[in-house]
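User: Teach me something about this protein's shape.
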Amino acid sequence: MAKLTPMMKQYFEIKEEYQDAILFFRLGDFYEMFFDDALQASKALEITLTARNCGQDEKAPMCGIPYHSANNYIVKLIEKGYKVAICEQTEDPSVAKGIVKREVVRVITPGTIINEKALDSKTNNFLLAIVESLEHIGLTYTDITTGEMYGTEIEISNIQDFYDEVAKIDAKEIIINADTSFDLTVLENKLKSKIYVYKDWLKQLEYSKTLIKRQFQIASVGSFGLTDVGTDVLSVGMLLDFLQETQKNLLEHVSSVKKYTLNQYMLLDYSTRRNLELSETIISGKKKGSLFGVLDLTKTAMGGRLLKKWIQEPLIQLNAIEDRLDLVEVFSKDLMLQDDINNYMKNIFDIERLIAKISYGNCNGRDLIALKNSIEYLPDIKKYLLEYPDEKIKQLAIQLDGLEDVYDLIEKSIVEDPPIVIKDGNLIKASYDDTLASFKDIMDHGKEWLTNIEVRERERTGIKKLKIGYNKVFGYYLEATKSQIQYSPLE
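Assistant: First, the predicted structure itself:
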């Protein structure tokens, strides 16, 4: 370490905290990887491996990718089972004294990827947290691209129910408390999923409660039906802690956790789900030909995900079944109602995942316009359903928020055809703010503005050859010869 260059020392200090991830180390317009990370990434991504002087006798293996195309490379690494830690420059290099400050701003894992290119629009990307105690197992899972979070608790004596429930969740990533008694190799084989040991969490009850209250802005964990001393609280807390450490973001769109019990739905074991081909076929592993593939005529990605959830979680309570069937019957018998709602739905984008991008702060102007165009139809849908002569349909309408305030804000502030990249500017309407309007006017008519000043000052001073000059030291200035100044009001 003593021989390392200052920059490589900084690299190793950051890498030390993220040993299980490939570190994307920002250097100018590139993300660079070094040493073992470079060897693994160059092979996985099929990019050239080079070397860089690091202060030691031998050069450091290195490979790099342009930052503006990083998403495609990240997706490839995640698909091959890697985690990626994004290390950004957090200081302007032009004003930095010494080495530019850098820090990891996000860790991307299979369960926390939000790039739509890596996701099936009609399939949830669940991250599951498991906390095991002597008597219970707490399960909490979330899809951070939609903001959904669900939690339950299972008695350790009902271990088969645990396996069946995890099979149903079909999480892309599973974390488990370090003090578990499970043989992880056996558990991975049973669950058909990769499991990562997280932390010793059984002693973190009070911290879990603190995390839950802060995330969901509640006074008591009982607000969501969580027990005060149970593994359900611990699993929610561990999941929130994991998200906090990897995402470096409060994720405000994850605003609640829905506590459920296993007796709300029919429990189906892994073999039954597979043989019934509920969401994918046995031979191809694809949606086409499965029950979901046959039934899925939904117009939105959100509707597709909900339909898949309904198929995977058959209701067993009579009242809930009858309520759902009553609504389905109304729609199935009224073709005009079907057509009218379908016409509205086909114009609606994936609102849930758009909101997640906004919450992450990585949306662009076109995402905001997509959101605006989607929620534009909500008031019309609500009005239509409120006027429909069926009480249960009206109850659906009452629960629907028209989001008129959000629509109005975007309509007033964002241009209709914004650029893809926010840094390109021309995103906010000039009419939205008077100060912004004045700045835009100067940008659009700057030369004309300077010419008018030049003409005005010539008339005021009587100096016919007065002109406006510019340099990097003084900026814009009025220029006149000494002989002209001598007999002018500028003297």
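Now, about its shape. The chain has four domains: 6-108, 117-264, 334-441, 445-486. The chain has 20 helices and 14 strands. If you'd like, I can walk through any region in more detail.
User: That's plenty for now, thanks!
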